[in-house]
Specification:
Layout: E1 2-11, H1 15-33, E2 36-42, H2 47-53, H3 61-65, E3 70-75, H4 83-97, E4 102-108, E5 126-132, E6 142-145, E7 153-156, H5 162-178, E8 183-188, H6 196-208, E9 215-220, H7 221-230, E10 237-240, H8 242-255, E11 263-267, E12 275-279, H9 296-309, H10 312-326, H11 342-354
Parallel strand pairs: 1-2, 1-3, 3-12, 5-10, 8-9, 8-10
Antiparallel strand pairs: 4-5, 4-11, 6-7, 11-12
Helix pairs in contact: 1-11, 5-6, 7-8, 9-10, 10-11
Bound molecules: nicotinamide-adenine-dinucleotide (NAD) and manganese (II) ion.
Length: 355
């Protein structure tokens, strides 16, 4: 029997509620399948760790994760610690440390869930956003000087490399090619940003020649928001920079019903390191500790985790279970206008995979 070693990092806020829920669902799936098991190891890194140790995770923390098959992550973000410390100290440290350069974010309208878009059916919105996850606006290059003085300066340099852009474009074209519509939209801003984004466009054109069967087009990021709202069916796979895709994927999640549903995988396509799966939402300070968090985004992330390790059948079983549960409005959490709790939704999905 195959055993998968999974590192669990709940982190902060509702991450501490949804990651254990994800473990429960994976465990139920393993029991039901009786073909594989999970060896979970949890790490208490995050805001509490920071208060005790002055850092979000230990210096050699990556070594504890290195030999895992995958990582299930919650959220980094604590009401009492600046966001740039929590994010850079934990999530980005893992994403960058393990060169998880492709951030894959599927969005669909699940059964029973309504889109806020009036003219949008379930078939109209079925997207995957590929986010460049290792450089660009979040490269960490920049600095501050003369702090507190009138001449204070601060820069965040958007750094793009040929290697970085080529590999994310190739990943996105390949993903688009694997989907039925074979359709890719390259999101850009090369009208205003005349260096890095122009190279981005040039490399998109170059890589497109390797994929003659993929239809592709290019759109400015601001216009893309309009297209997502007014012509959702014209999109399928999208590729965008770190910052652009961050923003567009929250919009995508909202259009599909809620931020609480959307999953993501931080993928190292070369499989040199473990990849990390997480809901796209954050710590949700307004509802944390109340048992009200929607765990569906984490469960869907577990589907992506299972696909990544090659458990295709279990992934399909879990996705079908999730869809059976969302189809029942009595099992909707508050973000979907319902009254169900995290525990109720988790139990329902566990029951559905065991059937
Ligand atoms: P957020 O995603 O935490 O919350 C935005 C809104 O969506 C809130 O009203 C929240 O209640 C709701 N929401 C989000 N997930 C939900 C769920 N599963 N169920 C029900 N409702 C849900 O975004 P924010 O408020 O901008 O950020 C809060 C903190 O989280 C910040 O510290 C931020 O830096 C951090 N953050 C971390 C990550 C990450 O680690 N991947 C991602 C985003 C934000
Ligand atoms: Mn985000």
């Amino acid at each position: 029997m195959k055993t998968y070693k999974i590192a669990c990092i709940p982190g902060d806020g509702i991450g501490k509620e949804v990651v254990p829920a994800g473990q429960e669902v994976l465990q139920a799936l393993a029991v039901a399948s009786s073909r594989f098991t999970f060896d979970f190891e949890s790490f208490g890194w995050g805001g509490d760790w920071y208060r005790a140790h002055g850092e979000m995770m230990p210096k050699n923390g990556l070594d504890a994760l290195r030999n895992k098959d995958a990582i299930l992550f919650g959220s980094a973000g604590d009401p009492d610690i600046p966001d740039h410390i929590t994010l850079w100290g934990l999530r980005l440290k893992i994403c960058q440390g393990f060169d998880q350069y492709a951030n894959v974010r599927p969005t669909r309208i699940l059964p029973g869930i309504e889109s806020p878009l009036k003219r949008c059916t379930r078939d109209d919105l079925n997207w995957v956003i590929v986010r460049e996850n290792s450089e660009g606006e979040y490269s960490g290059v920049g600095g501050r000087a003369h702090q507190g003085h009138p001449i204070e300066v601060a820069t965040d340099v958007c750094m793009m490399t040929r290697v970085g852009v080529e590999r994310i474009m190739r990943f996105a074209f390949r993903l688009a090619q694997s989907r039925p519509r074979k359709l890719l939209t390259v999101v850009t801003k090369s009208n205003a940003q005349r260096h890095a984004m122009v190279m981005w466009d040039e490399i998109a054109l170059q890589i497109s020649k390797e994929f003659p069967d993929v239809t592709w087009d290019k759109i400015l990021v601001d216009a893309c928001t309009d297209r997502m709202v007014n012509r959702p069916a014209s999109l399928d796979t999208l590729v965008a920079t770190n910052l652009h895709a961050d923003v567009l994927s929250d919009l995508a999640a909202a259009l599909a019903g809620s931020l609480g549903i959307a999953p993501t995988g931080n993928i190292d396509p070369e499989r040199r390191y473990p990849s990390m799966f997480e809901p796209i939402h954050g710590s949700a300070f307004d509802i944390m500790g109340k048992g009200l968090a929607n765990p569906i985004g984490t469960f869907w992330s577990c589907v992506m985790l299972l696909e990544h390790v090659g458990e295709t059948e279990a992934a399909q079983t879990l996705m079908a279970a999730i869809e059976r549960v969302t189809a029942n409005p009595a099992l909707h959490t508050g973000d979907l206008g319902g009254r169900a709790t995290t525990v109720q939704v988790t139990q329902a999905v566990c029951a559905a995979v065991s059937r």
